[in-house]
Write a structure and sequence with these properties.
Blueprint: H1 17-21, E1 36-37, H2 49-56, H3 61-64, H4 72-81, E2 94-97, H5 100-111, E3 117-122, H6 128-134, E4 138-143, H7 153-163, E5 167-171, H8 183-192, E6 197-201, E7 224-229, E8 242-246, H9 248-255, H10 265-276, H11 278-302, E9 305-307, E10 313-317, H12 322-331, E11 334-335, E12 337-338, E13 349-352, H13 356-369
Parallel strand pairs: 1-11, 3-4, 3-5, 5-6, 6-7
Antiparallel strand pairs: 2-8, 7-8, 9-10, 10-13, 12-13
Helix pairs in contact: 2-10, 4-10, 11-13, 12-13
The structure holds pyridoxal-5'-phosphate (PLP).
Residues 41, 99-101, 125, 171, 175, 201, 203, 229, 231, 237, 242 line the site of pyridoxal-5'-phosphate.
């Protein structure tokens, strides 16, 4: 964060100095509709047909009344507990938010005070930084290590005991490096740092198949929060719904800083249908994993530098100028994300992994765009 003095707003009313100094999170969202969208790690096929049907059946009066949330937290716990858990999750341990972005914002708002510390990694998901800055927090970001972008376990352990930060944020698998860290290590961080709230962003957990939720008891590890979303696997990114799972006291505090109707009725109806159709999500994930193996082989054979680990995305360093390759891919109907300016991965393109057919379409366009 720049340490420049806050400038006076043109209205004569100054926002908080933290807001005046910070930069908002911007994403290139416009004009994506008719292209192959491999730029936001979204589900590339769309939601389950049951979700679409449930949305179509919404009566018009539903629009004029405030949303109802009854049964939603139970549906989340039923869905999560269907997988074997060390300790089953209870509804009061679930918070429902307008996307995981809103959960992240609320966690910082509830827990991050001016001059408190956030410990995290770099490069990682871009929304953590503005959330810390808007609270006036200090950020200690440890780089991923070596050519494989390994998790900086030792450095984070030392930082936890030395600085006793308010928040530790771990994206597992990490967006954009795909780096993974064992669930037991995360639980150890939480248990050895009781005064730090450990937040694990598990947006891409389905592509890893391993979660802290399977191994933690949230009653005896009350300083751990796990974030899950229906954006990436269930295909509800446009409706905005995500969950924070943690000790009921922590969830209660985070819920105090959000509005009473922040999650809309359409998202609730869609979420209930999506949570019931886990088969659809599982088969999508399976398809992505097959495509991931295929594209990995092509990258290896092509001799290009690439990195691919835990999520539904990969990094590739084109031989030609990345901006030119990105533009040429766009002209061929394929969107990818340029990692320009991101520490350690400048020069790479991040490519979301969709179905096998979509990856074939990408690869053909990529090879044509990045001629050697
Ligand atoms: C790591 C990570 N966390 C959170 C989000 C936001 O998720 P949601 O759509 O649920 O707000 C994203 C979206 O790209 C992400 O990559």
């Amino acid at each position: 964060m720049k340490s420049s003095k806050p400038t006076k707003s043109i209205t004569g009313v100054s926002p908080r100095p933290e807001v005046e100094r910070m930069q908002g999170y911007k994403a290139p969202l416009e004009g994506r509709r008719n292209l192959l969208r491999l730029d936001f790690n979204e589900n590339t096929l769309g939601p389950s047909p049951h979700v679409v049907e449930a949305l179509r059946n919404i009566p018009s009066h539903h629009i004029s009344i405030y949303p109802e949330y009854d049964g939603l937290r139970e549906a989340v716990t039923d869905n999560l507990n269907a997988k074997k858990r060390y300790v089953p999750i209870r509804p009061e341990q679930v918070g429902v938010f307008n996307g995981v972005d809103a959960a992240i914002h609320a966690i910082f708002h509830a827990y991050g005070d001016r001059d408190d510390q956030l410990v995290t990694t770099t490069p990682t998901f871009g929304y953590y930084t503005p959330c810390a800055h808007m609270q006036g927090m200090k950020i200690l970001a440890f780089p991923y290590e070596g050519g494989n972008y390994n998790f900086p376990t030792q450095k984070i352990s030392t930082a936890l005991s030395e600085y006793k930060p308010k928040l530790l944020l771990i994206c597992n698998p990490n967006n954009p490096t795909g780096t993974t860290i064992p669930a037991q290590q995360i639980i150890k961080f939480a248990n050895t740092s009781p005064n730090t709230l450990v937040v694990v962003d598990e947006l891409y957990e389905a592509f890893l198949g391993e979660s802290v939720l399977q191994e933690v008891d949230l009653d005896s590890t009350p300083n751990l929060i796990i974030l899950r979303s229906l954006s990436k696997t269930a295909g509800l990114a446009g409706l905005r719904i995500g969950f924070a799972i943690g000790n009921n006291n922590v969830i209660n505090r985070i819920n105090r800083v959000v509005g009473p109707y922040d999650v809309n009725s359409f998202a609730v109806i869609a979420a209930l249908a999506a949570l019931k159709d886990q088969v659809y999500v599982d088969s999508y994930v399976k398809e992505v994993l097959i495509a991931r193996d295929w594209i990995k082989k092509q990258l290896f054979k092509s001799g290009r530098r690439y990195h691919l680990e835990g999520g539904n995305y990969l990094l590739v360093w084109p031989k030609q100028d990345p901006f030119q390759v990105e533009a040429s891919l766009k002209a061929a109907g394929v969107l990818v994300r340029n990692m320009k300016g991101k520490p350690l991965i400048d020069g790479a393109l991040r490519v979301s992994i969709g179905t096998s057919n979509q990856m074939k379409q990408f690869w053909e366009a990529f090879i044509n765009s990045d001629r050697v």
